[in-house]
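Ex. 9. Protein: 3-dehydroquinate dehydratase.
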Amino acid sequence: MDKKRIIIINGPNLNLLGKREPEIYGADSFEEFLKKLQIKNPELHIDYYQSNIEGKLVSKIQQADSDFDGILLNAAAYTHTSVAIHDAIGAITTPVVEIHISNIYKREEFRHKSIISSKCVGMISGLGLKGYQLGLNYFKN
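Predicted structure tokens for 3-dehydroquinate dehydratase:
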């Protein structure tokens, strides 16, 4: 049986995990965390992509539609501003789970609105990096 192919797509500033506001985001880099996810989920093929550039995220979402069975998307700040990412999710058939490391509802008011949520199958927010594992669990069924 083929492994389900899942891609994790992270948006702007998530390349700074481990350095940026560790009290909110933790001390591990995402690459370190990704290795742990891959070991813990051997029944899945997990790829990873990160960009600070909105258009590259849109292109990766479009490409993922033909290459992957599921997407975990942490659009970061673009969650609250990007109609382009919203439209890209709406244009594909691959299910997308929206992920946020921090609880967006406990932060600044402008972060309380997610433009992309209406196109995602669900959202996980505020559980730290554990949210990625919960998202992977969704695709295991």
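Check your answer against this statement. The first helix runs from residue 22 to 25.
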